[in-house]
Specification:
The complex is a heterodimer of chains A (240) and B (581). Chain A contains 4 helices and 12 strands. Chain A has 240 residues and is α+β, with helices and mostly antiparallel strands. The C terminus of chain A is likely disordered. The longest helix of chain B is centred in the C-terminal third of the chain and has 22 residues. The mean pLDDT of chain B is 94. The chains are: A alpha+beta (240), B alpha/beta (581).
């Protein structure tokens, strides 16, 4: 019995696959790779696979996480290689490691911050955007209307925007870097931030890329004592 | 602008992207002919259609040919494409369909026909064969609907009648000729291929009476193709694994083709004769290959009646034994209503839970005899007994109303039979009786070409609606869940199913009025269809409801299926006399 954690990349060609479909895709790849999957008991046995926080539909990510239970303690490097042979283009295991023995379960539930790099391509004035970023960060309250949720509601997302910066102007537009709260204790989606900056709509092409997942924001949202999720210790200590 | 840029604006965008496992990407420069294979419905339905996988596999396995896929875009995507003037493209290389040498389109069933016109229009290909020029691809049809090609004859350059495994490569060689006239001439020489432009349709009054005659030397009869040996036939084990959840997200193993039961309403029964089986040895090998190549966790055994396979018991035992421990289940979607079937289903239940479905079709012995449904009430109750005693609490039953020779007492008997099954089920289940659920699905009889009932008109919609109300009254109860097919939908199915070439005008008009995805309740508009028939100077009811004489010439008379009209007529007369008894 062993639990393997993998960090994987969800790339350009698979970015339109939903979280649930991605889970099925990974399960099928694991079966093709003939990994010794531990199956759940019961009439409808299925592999014990858990994924980190879902990416928004259309977003790519480098920091994505999965955990799977195996019946044998395979070398994580072998799991990575066998799996990569069976994954569709642009879906790739970047690194794999064994869950430390003293831990019973992966702790993806602790993840509460996601860092995105958002490129905004097309008609855009970088100076003006920088102004809007400053205004946004200076505001006390940022009200977002969530019509898609039931019941419909409005939420103040200001506490969930931990950092936001407009990186240098590029030929094709500009790039935003943002760290946002995510998870069950409330959060904000990168699309909502882009809309708050007035950058949605029009014929602009906006590409969302998640570059990091962190834990540790719950205790003190603005203190940023964040621990980045990496291989060595699960959520590792270290100021960001 | 390209399709990629539209993805943020549509629902389920992964239906329009490619890169699924086992999808084939071939270099266009290295092949002699490029095919776009189109299923004219949603991606989810199309990817569940085995025929598409088979042809894709055969063409792409050949070094000279290439095949890519396309599906009917959902209306939200259609709007995006039209607003921006983006033509419909294939999934694999995102090439516009009109750049292919041939566009092969499945004719799955009547209610997809407006989608076919919509796909052609979105691709920028002229709808009518007569309007296409040297630059346009050949538009080739095939599939279940091809046994009566007339309603779609004006829109296709060629239609293959029957099974495609052998014919597809002959067709591909004709496509290689490139020159439109030469290719059509070659296609017309292929057995089973119908080139409608070489035939003249004439009509004897309203409704489906008339005939189709060859011009300048084309064969008078198009003889349906079928493969003689299913065991030797190519079968795709490297099936494409969709990212999105489709209707059947599992390995499909075709264990048998055709059915020897001879139900008189059934078109598939005559269109896919004779019954052919794959051997257990072949099927086990294909199952191993397919599971290894796809990673699916379920194997579904495809056949009209899977339990009619002569080695079904050993096949199921072997599959369960080999795959059960790997967490791969086996599904038997088409069961007979008898104790043997339930015993088989029990074997499968060791791995995975699924529902049990039986199709008595009619509730009285007389009517079952008239339609030649070989099932007795004893079989049904034995099946229910076996099912309830081995733990099932849910059954689903299929019935048809409006069958030839049906009387009101036959309809009442459905309610009676179901209520007796409920009482019986409660008795068997004892303390678990509260969990009993019997789903009753009632469809309306649709007369189909090449069946003994092809001459019988469909009962009119008012009368069908009256019978449905009768059923609603008699099928009350906590344990019963009744569902039925909309009589308007059944009427349209009947009208197109028995349609002649004139009906093509009504289909084109309906599409012009905005009809697409007619098989999807939310898009179906019967008033629009009635209007379309009227605008084409036709009456939908003439096609759906009129009773034909055995001496009438039939619009599909030039298509030779497995049984000729004399054999069908004999069966029809037997049905009528058995129904009278």
């Amino acid at each position: 019995m062993a639990q393997i954690i993998c960090r994987y990349r969800k790339g350009e060609q698979v970015r339109w696959i939903s979280h649930l479909d991605l889970k099925r895709t990974l399960e099928r790849a694991m079966r093709r790779a003939q990994l010794p999957l531990l199956l759940s008991q019961g009439h409808n046995p299925h592999p014990k696979l858990s994924l980190g926080p879902p990416l928004p539909l259309g977003a790519t990510g480098d920091a994505e996480l999965l955990a799977v239970h195996l019946t044998e303690a395979l070398d994580p490097e072998e799991v990575k290689e066998r799996l990569n042979e069976q994954l569709p283009p642009s879906l790739e295991i970047v690194e794999a490691w064994r869950l430390p023995r003293h831990k019973k379960k992966e702790t993806f539930g602790q993840i509460d911050v996601a860092q995105y790099r958002v490129s905004v391509q097309g008609e855009v004035d970088p100076g003006e955007v920088r102004g809007r970023v400053e205004a946004l960060l200076a505001s006390e309250e940022l009200v977002v209307h969530r019509g898609g949720e039931r019941p419909e509601r409005t939420v103040d997302v200001r506490p969930f925007v931990l950092s936001l910066a407009a990186a240098g102007a590029k030929e094709w537009g500009l790039e935003l870097d943002m760290r946002l709260r995510t998870g069950s204790h409330g959060g904000v989606r990168p699309q909502e931030v882009v809309a708050l900056l007035g950058l949605d709509g029009g014929d602009r092409r906006i590409i969302y890329h998640r570059i990091g997942l962190y834990a540790g924001a719950q205790a003190a949202p603005r203190k940023r004592a964040l621990r980045r999720w990496t291989r060595s210790r699960g959520p590792t200590q270290g100021r960001e | 602008m390209d399709v990629e840029s539209l993805l943020p604006r549509v629902i389920k965008p992964a239906r329009y992207t490619d890169g699924e496992w086992n999808a084939v990407h071939k270099d266009a420069a290295g092949v002699r002919a490029r095919f776009a294979l189109v299923y004219p419905d949603s991606y989810e339905l199309g990817m569940s259609h085995l025929g598409l996988h088979i042809l894709y596999h055969i063409l792409n396995s050949h070094p000279d040919f290439l095949a890519e896929r396309a599906f009917a875009p959902w209306p939200d995507m259609e709007r995006q494409l039209r607003d921006r003037g983006i033509p419909l493209t294939s999934l694999e290389s995102q090439s516009p369909l009109r750049e292919f040498d041939a566009v092969g389109i499945t004719l799955p069933y009547e209610l997809t026909y407006t989608n076919i016109l919509n796909v052609l229009d979105l691709a920028g290909i002229p709808l009518r064969s007569a309007d296409r020029g040297p630059e346009d691809p050949l538009v080739i049809g095939g599939g279940p609907g091809a046994v009566n090609p007339e309603p779609m004859a004006d829109f296709f350059d060629a239609i293959l009648v029957g099974e495609g495994e052998d014919a597809i490569l002959e067709i591909a060689e004709a496509v290689v000729l490139r020159d439109r006239e030469a290719a059509l001439a070659r296609l017309a020489e292929i057995s089973g291929v119908y080139v409608p432009a070489q035939y003249h349709a004439s009509f004897d009054g309203p409704g489906p009476r008339g005939s189709v005659a060859p011009r300048n030397g084309a064969p008078a009869q198009i003889v349906r193709r079928f493969i003689s040996d299913l065991d030797e036939a190519p079968f795709p084990t490297r099936q494409i694994v969709p990212f999105v959840d489709t209707v059947y997200s599992r390995v499909t193993l075709e264990i048998m083709r055709g059915c020897a039961r001879g139900c008189r309403f059934c078109q598939a029964g005559t269109a896919y004769r004779p019954r052919r089986e794959r051997s257990v040895e072949t099927l086990l090998r294909q199952a191993e290959e397919a599971v290894a190549a796809t990673g699916y966790d379920e194997i579904s055994l495809l056949a009209f009646t899977s339990v009619d396979h002569r080695d079904i018991e050993s096949l199921v035992s072997e599959l369960v034994e080999r795959f059960g421990s790997r967490g791969v289940g086996v599904a038997l979607p088409s069961l007979r209503a008898d104790a043997f079937s339930v015993a088989l289903a029990n074997k499968i239940q060791q791995v995975r839970k699924s529902g049990l479905t039986f199709a008595p079709e009619a509730a009285t012995p007389r009517l079952r005899r008239a339609i030649r449904k070989q099932l007795t009430e004893d079989d049904l109750f034995a099946a229910a007994d076996a099912a309830f005693s081995s733990g099932w609490t849910r059954l689903k039953l299929y019935f048809m109303i409006g069958l030839p020779t049906e009387r009101e007492e036959d309809v009442e008997a459905i309610g009676d039979l179901v209520q007796r099954l409920v009482a019986f089920g409660r008795g068997v289940l004892g303390s678990r009786a509260g969990r009993l659920r019997i789903g009753v699905s009632v469809t309306s009889f649709v007369p189909k070409p090449h069946t003994p009932f092809q001459w019988m008109g469909q009962e009119d919609r008012d009368s069908l609606a009256h019978k449905q109300r009768l059923l609603q009254r008699s099928l009350r109860g906590r344990a019963i869940k009744l569902s039925w097919a909309d009589p308007d939908v059944s009427a349209l199915e009947a009208a197109i199913s028995r349609g002649d070439r004139r009906v093509g005008r009504a289909i084109e008009r309906a599409w012009g009025l905005g009809a697409v995805f007619d098989a999807w309740g939310e898009h179906f508009d019967f008033v629009q269809w009635q209007q379309a028939f009227r605008d084409a100077d036709l009456q939908l009811e003439d096609y759906a409801n009129s009773h034909l004489d055995f001496s009438d010439a039939l619009p599909w008379g030039h298509i030779a299926c497995s049984l000729d009209n004399d054999a069908l007529r004999e069966e029809a007369e037997r049905a009528l006399s058995q129904g009278e008894a």
